[in-house]
Design brief:
It contains 17 helices and no strands. By secondary structure, it is mostly helical.
Length: 319
Protein backbone atom coordinates (compact mmCIF):
# COMPACT_ATOMS: atom_id res chain seq x y z
CA UNK A 1 0.00 0.00 0.00
CA UNK A 2 1.46 3.41 -0.91
CA UNK A 3 2.09 5.79 1.99
CA UNK A 4 -0.89 8.06 2.76
CA UNK A 5 -0.79 11.70 1.75
CA UNK A 6 -0.07 14.28 4.43
CA UNK A 7 -3.43 14.69 6.17
CA UNK A 8 -5.22 17.76 4.88
CA UNK A 9 -2.00 19.71 4.38
CA UNK A 10 -3.01 21.34 1.12
CA UNK A 11 -6.39 22.35 2.45
CA UNK A 12 -4.78 23.90 5.51
CA UNK A 13 -2.40 25.94 3.35
CA UNK A 14 -5.27 27.21 1.22
CA UNK A 15 -7.23 28.11 4.32
CA UNK A 16 -4.27 29.97 5.76
CA UNK A 17 -3.87 31.97 2.54
CA UNK A 18 -7.52 32.99 2.75
CA UNK A 19 -7.07 34.22 6.32
CA UNK A 20 -9.66 31.78 7.63
CA UNK A 21 -7.59 28.93 9.03
CA UNK A 22 -9.54 26.05 10.56
CA UNK A 23 -9.07 25.76 14.31
CA UNK A 24 -8.44 22.21 15.56
CA UNK A 25 -9.53 23.33 19.02
CA UNK A 26 -13.11 23.40 17.66
CA UNK A 27 -15.50 24.80 20.29
CA UNK A 28 -13.29 24.29 23.37
CA UNK A 29 -13.03 27.89 24.61
CA UNK A 30 -10.86 26.96 27.58
CA UNK A 31 -8.42 25.16 25.31
CA UNK A 32 -8.23 28.15 22.97
CA UNK A 33 -7.41 30.45 25.89
CA UNK A 34 -4.81 28.10 27.35
CA UNK A 35 -3.17 27.59 23.95
CA UNK A 36 -2.71 31.35 23.67
CA UNK A 37 -1.09 31.45 27.10
CA UNK A 38 1.20 28.54 26.23
CA UNK A 39 2.36 30.34 23.07
CA UNK A 40 3.48 33.14 25.43
CA UNK A 41 5.38 30.70 27.63
CA UNK A 42 2.76 30.53 30.40
CA UNK A 43 2.55 26.77 30.86
CA UNK A 44 0.94 26.92 34.33
CA UNK A 45 -2.46 27.37 32.68
CA UNK A 46 -1.90 24.10 30.77
CA UNK A 47 -1.03 22.33 34.02
CA UNK A 48 -4.24 23.51 35.68
CA UNK A 49 -6.42 22.63 32.70
CA UNK A 50 -5.00 19.13 32.32
CA UNK A 51 -5.31 18.48 36.05
CA UNK A 52 -9.00 19.39 35.82
CA UNK A 53 -9.45 17.27 32.68
CA UNK A 54 -8.32 14.23 34.71
CA UNK A 55 -9.30 10.91 33.09
CA UNK A 56 -11.79 12.26 30.56
CA UNK A 57 -9.64 10.51 27.96
CA UNK A 58 -11.25 11.86 24.80
CA UNK A 59 -11.03 15.42 26.11
CA UNK A 60 -7.50 14.93 27.42
CA UNK A 61 -6.36 13.51 24.08
CA UNK A 62 -8.04 16.31 22.14
CA UNK A 63 -6.48 19.01 24.29
CA UNK A 64 -2.97 17.57 24.31
CA UNK A 65 -2.97 16.94 20.57
CA UNK A 66 -4.14 20.50 19.83
CA UNK A 67 -1.59 21.98 22.25
CA UNK A 68 1.17 19.82 20.81
CA UNK A 69 0.72 21.02 17.24
CA UNK A 70 2.28 24.55 17.32
CA UNK A 71 6.05 24.52 16.68
CA UNK A 72 6.74 26.54 19.87
CA UNK A 73 5.20 23.96 22.20
CA UNK A 74 8.26 21.71 22.58
CA UNK A 75 10.35 24.51 24.10
CA UNK A 76 7.66 25.46 26.62
CA UNK A 77 7.04 21.82 27.53
CA UNK A 78 10.76 21.42 28.25
CA UNK A 79 10.62 24.52 30.48
CA UNK A 80 7.68 22.97 32.33
CA UNK A 81 9.67 19.75 32.84
CA UNK A 82 12.61 21.71 34.24
CA UNK A 83 10.30 23.20 36.85
CA UNK A 84 8.36 19.98 37.45
CA UNK A 85 10.61 16.97 36.64
CA UNK A 86 8.74 13.75 36.01
CA UNK A 87 5.38 15.41 35.39
CA UNK A 88 3.25 13.00 33.32
CA UNK A 89 1.30 15.91 31.83
CA UNK A 90 4.41 17.83 30.78
CA UNK A 91 6.03 14.66 29.43
CA UNK A 92 2.95 13.80 27.38
CA UNK A 93 2.71 17.35 26.02
CA UNK A 94 6.36 17.17 24.97
CA UNK A 95 5.70 13.80 23.30
CA UNK A 96 2.81 15.29 21.30
CA UNK A 97 5.00 18.23 20.29
CA UNK A 98 7.74 15.85 19.12
CA UNK A 99 5.22 13.86 17.08
CA UNK A 100 4.11 16.97 15.20
CA UNK A 101 7.72 18.03 14.83
CA UNK A 102 8.49 14.66 13.25
CA UNK A 103 5.54 15.00 10.89
CA UNK A 104 6.90 18.40 9.83
CA UNK A 105 10.36 16.88 9.31
CA UNK A 106 11.86 18.90 12.17
CA UNK A 107 12.35 16.03 14.65
CA UNK A 108 13.56 12.47 14.20
CA UNK A 109 10.64 10.02 14.28
CA UNK A 110 12.58 7.79 16.68
CA UNK A 111 12.96 10.71 19.11
CA UNK A 112 9.21 11.25 18.95
CA UNK A 113 8.60 7.55 19.60
CA UNK A 114 10.98 7.60 22.56
CA UNK A 115 9.21 10.63 24.03
CA UNK A 116 5.86 8.88 23.70
CA UNK A 117 7.17 5.74 25.35
CA UNK A 118 8.53 7.82 28.24
CA UNK A 119 5.10 9.41 28.70
CA UNK A 120 3.41 6.00 28.58
CA UNK A 121 5.69 4.72 31.34
CA UNK A 122 4.78 7.64 33.60
CA UNK A 123 1.03 7.19 33.08
CA UNK A 124 0.33 3.57 32.12
CA UNK A 125 -3.45 4.03 32.16
CA UNK A 126 -3.45 7.08 29.86
CA UNK A 127 -4.21 6.33 26.18
CA UNK A 128 -2.85 9.71 25.05
CA UNK A 129 0.82 8.73 24.55
CA UNK A 130 -0.39 5.81 22.46
CA UNK A 131 -2.68 8.16 20.53
CA UNK A 132 0.36 10.33 19.76
CA UNK A 133 2.22 7.25 18.51
CA UNK A 134 -0.81 6.35 16.39
CA UNK A 135 -0.88 9.83 14.85
CA UNK A 136 2.77 9.37 13.90
CA UNK A 137 2.22 5.86 12.57
CA UNK A 138 -0.80 7.02 10.56
CA UNK A 139 1.65 8.75 8.24
CA UNK A 140 4.97 7.00 8.86
CA UNK A 141 4.19 3.53 10.20
CA UNK A 142 3.39 0.11 8.81
CA UNK A 143 -0.07 -1.44 8.81
CA UNK A 144 1.00 -3.77 11.61
CA UNK A 145 2.25 -0.84 13.71
CA UNK A 146 -0.97 1.10 13.20
CA UNK A 147 -3.06 -1.89 14.24
CA UNK A 148 -0.93 -2.55 17.33
CA UNK A 149 -1.05 1.06 18.48
CA UNK A 150 -4.80 1.24 17.93
CA UNK A 151 -5.16 -1.82 20.16
CA UNK A 152 -3.06 -0.11 22.85
CA UNK A 153 -5.33 2.94 22.79
CA UNK A 154 -8.48 0.87 22.76
CA UNK A 155 -7.24 -1.30 25.65
CA UNK A 156 -7.14 1.86 27.78
CA UNK A 157 -10.28 3.52 26.39
CA UNK A 158 -12.43 1.27 24.15
CA UNK A 159 -14.45 4.17 22.72
CA UNK A 160 -11.53 6.47 21.94
CA UNK A 161 -12.96 8.81 19.31
CA UNK A 162 -9.81 10.16 17.67
CA UNK A 163 -8.15 6.73 17.49
CA UNK A 164 -11.16 5.22 15.73
CA UNK A 165 -11.14 8.05 13.17
CA UNK A 166 -7.43 7.51 12.50
CA UNK A 167 -7.94 3.79 12.08
CA UNK A 168 -10.85 4.30 9.68
CA UNK A 169 -8.79 6.68 7.57
CA UNK A 170 -5.89 4.23 7.35
CA UNK A 171 -8.09 1.19 6.62
CA UNK A 172 -9.90 3.09 3.86
CA UNK A 173 -6.61 3.33 1.98
CA UNK A 174 -6.30 -0.43 1.60
CA UNK A 175 -6.96 -1.83 -1.89
CA UNK A 176 -7.69 1.47 -3.68
CA UNK A 177 -8.21 -0.40 -6.93
CA UNK A 178 -11.06 -2.48 -5.53
CA UNK A 179 -13.56 0.25 -6.31
CA UNK A 180 -17.01 0.32 -4.75
CA UNK A 181 -16.69 -2.87 -2.73
CA UNK A 182 -19.53 -2.93 -0.17
CA UNK A 183 -17.57 -5.54 1.79
CA UNK A 184 -14.44 -3.42 2.13
CA UNK A 185 -12.86 -3.83 5.55
CA UNK A 186 -13.24 -0.17 6.51
CA UNK A 187 -17.02 -0.58 6.41
CA UNK A 188 -16.82 -3.74 8.53
CA UNK A 189 -14.54 -2.00 11.02
CA UNK A 190 -16.83 1.02 11.37
CA UNK A 191 -19.96 -1.11 11.74
CA UNK A 192 -18.24 -3.28 14.35
CA UNK A 193 -17.06 -0.25 16.36
CA UNK A 194 -20.52 1.33 16.29
CA UNK A 195 -22.16 -1.91 17.41
CA UNK A 196 -19.67 -2.45 20.25
CA UNK A 197 -20.10 1.06 21.65
CA UNK A 198 -22.81 2.13 24.11
CA UNK A 199 -26.01 3.59 22.69
CA UNK A 200 -24.98 7.20 23.40
CA UNK A 201 -21.48 6.87 21.94
CA UNK A 202 -20.53 9.17 19.06
CA UNK A 203 -18.91 6.15 17.42
CA UNK A 204 -22.40 5.66 15.97
CA UNK A 205 -21.27 8.18 13.33
CA UNK A 206 -18.12 6.19 12.44
CA UNK A 207 -19.79 4.37 9.49
CA UNK A 208 -20.36 7.81 7.91
CA UNK A 209 -16.71 8.68 8.50
CA UNK A 210 -15.63 5.41 6.89
CA UNK A 211 -17.83 6.15 3.87
CA UNK A 212 -16.22 9.57 3.39
CA UNK A 213 -12.69 8.24 3.88
CA UNK A 214 -13.29 5.56 1.26
CA UNK A 215 -14.59 8.20 -1.16
CA UNK A 216 -11.35 10.16 -0.61
CA UNK A 217 -9.33 7.11 -1.65
CA UNK A 218 -11.53 6.15 -4.61
CA UNK A 219 -11.61 9.71 -5.98
CA UNK A 220 -7.82 9.99 -5.67
CA UNK A 221 -7.52 6.69 -7.56
CA UNK A 222 -9.79 8.01 -10.34
CA UNK A 223 -12.66 5.57 -9.82
CA UNK A 224 -14.95 8.27 -8.42
CA UNK A 225 -15.43 11.84 -9.69
CA UNK A 226 -13.40 14.48 -7.84
CA UNK A 227 -16.62 16.43 -7.24
CA UNK A 228 -18.71 14.59 -4.63
CA UNK A 229 -21.91 16.00 -6.13
CA UNK A 230 -21.13 14.14 -9.35
CA UNK A 231 -20.61 10.88 -7.50
CA UNK A 232 -23.21 8.28 -6.58
CA UNK A 233 -21.19 7.35 -3.51
CA UNK A 234 -23.79 8.75 -1.09
CA UNK A 235 -26.96 7.69 -2.89
CA UNK A 236 -26.81 3.89 -2.98
CA UNK A 237 -29.01 1.77 -0.74
CA UNK A 238 -26.27 0.88 1.72
CA UNK A 239 -25.05 4.47 1.92
CA UNK A 240 -28.54 5.76 2.64
CA UNK A 241 -28.99 3.21 5.42
CA UNK A 242 -25.73 4.31 7.01
CA UNK A 243 -26.64 8.00 6.77
CA UNK A 244 -30.14 7.44 8.19
CA UNK A 245 -28.85 5.44 11.16
CA UNK A 246 -26.27 8.11 12.00
CA UNK A 247 -28.74 10.98 11.61
CA UNK A 248 -31.32 9.17 13.76
CA UNK A 249 -28.62 8.69 16.41
CA UNK A 250 -27.87 12.41 16.32
CA UNK A 251 -31.53 13.32 16.78
CA UNK A 252 -31.87 11.05 19.81
CA UNK A 253 -28.44 11.05 21.46
CA UNK A 254 -26.46 14.06 20.26
CA UNK A 255 -23.38 14.31 22.48
CA UNK A 256 -22.98 18.07 22.58
CA UNK A 257 -20.62 17.57 25.52
CA UNK A 258 -18.11 15.54 23.52
CA UNK A 259 -14.90 17.50 22.71
CA UNK A 260 -14.89 16.32 19.07
CA UNK A 261 -18.61 16.72 18.51
CA UNK A 262 -18.06 19.19 15.65
CA UNK A 263 -15.87 16.68 13.82
CA UNK A 264 -18.78 14.25 13.66
CA UNK A 265 -21.23 16.97 12.65
CA UNK A 266 -19.03 18.03 9.74
CA UNK A 267 -18.88 14.46 8.44
CA UNK A 268 -22.63 14.04 8.89
CA UNK A 269 -23.52 17.37 7.23
CA UNK A 270 -21.21 16.53 4.32
CA UNK A 271 -22.92 13.16 3.90
CA UNK A 272 -26.47 14.50 4.14
CA UNK A 273 -25.78 17.29 1.68
CA UNK A 274 -24.29 14.93 -0.90
CA UNK A 275 -27.06 12.42 -0.30
CA UNK A 276 -29.51 15.09 -1.48
CA UNK A 277 -31.11 15.79 1.92
CA UNK A 278 -30.69 19.58 2.23
CA UNK A 279 -33.17 20.03 5.11
CA UNK A 280 -31.32 17.53 7.28
CA UNK A 281 -28.00 19.03 6.24
CA UNK A 282 -29.28 22.50 7.16
CA UNK A 283 -30.05 21.37 10.72
CA UNK A 284 -26.50 20.09 11.01
CA UNK A 285 -24.98 23.27 9.57
CA UNK A 286 -26.87 25.30 12.16
CA UNK A 287 -25.37 23.15 14.91
CA UNK A 288 -21.86 23.33 13.45
CA UNK A 289 -21.98 27.12 13.51
CA UNK A 290 -18.52 28.61 13.13
CA UNK A 291 -16.73 25.33 13.86
CA UNK A 292 -16.14 23.94 10.39
CA UNK A 293 -13.47 21.27 10.02
CA UNK A 294 -11.30 20.65 6.95
CA UNK A 295 -12.28 16.98 6.79
CA UNK A 296 -14.19 15.82 4.85
CA UNK A 297 -14.80 19.04 2.89
CA UNK A 298 -11.29 18.85 1.43
CA UNK A 299 -11.86 15.36 -0.01
CA UNK A 300 -10.35 14.38 -2.35
CA UNK A 301 -8.31 17.53 -3.04
CA UNK A 302 -10.65 20.47 -2.77
CA UNK A 303 -10.54 23.85 -1.07
CA UNK A 304 -12.38 22.97 2.15
CA UNK A 305 -13.61 26.52 2.81
CA UNK A 306 -15.10 26.83 -0.64
CA UNK A 307 -16.70 23.38 -0.39
CA UNK A 308 -18.08 23.95 3.11
CA UNK A 309 -19.56 27.37 2.40
CA UNK A 310 -21.03 26.31 -0.95
CA UNK A 311 -22.76 23.33 0.68
CA UNK A 312 -23.88 25.38 3.66
CA UNK A 313 -25.32 28.13 1.48
CA UNK A 314 -27.13 25.63 -0.73
CA UNK A 315 -28.59 23.75 2.26
CA UNK A 316 -29.71 26.92 4.00
CA UNK A 317 -31.05 28.47 0.81
CA UNK A 318 -28.72 31.45 0.90
CA UNK A 319 -27.00 30.93 -2.46
Amino acid sequence: MPPPPPPLGRGRRRAARSGQAFDPALDDAELISVRTQLAQGRWTAVRSMLAATADDWDRRGHRLVVLGEPPSTAAWARDWLLADPGSPDATTLLACAYVYGALRGKERPEDARSACRAAAELAPEDPTPWLALLILARSLGTEEEVARLFDEVRFRHPEHHHAHHLMAARLAERHPGAGQDPLHEVYDFAAWAAEQAPADSPLAVLPVVAHAERYRVLAAAGSEPPDPLASGHWTGRRARQVMKAAFDWWLEWEREDHPRNRVDLNFLAHAKYHEGRPAEAAALFHRIGAHAAPAPWSYPDRDPHDAFHAARSAALGTV
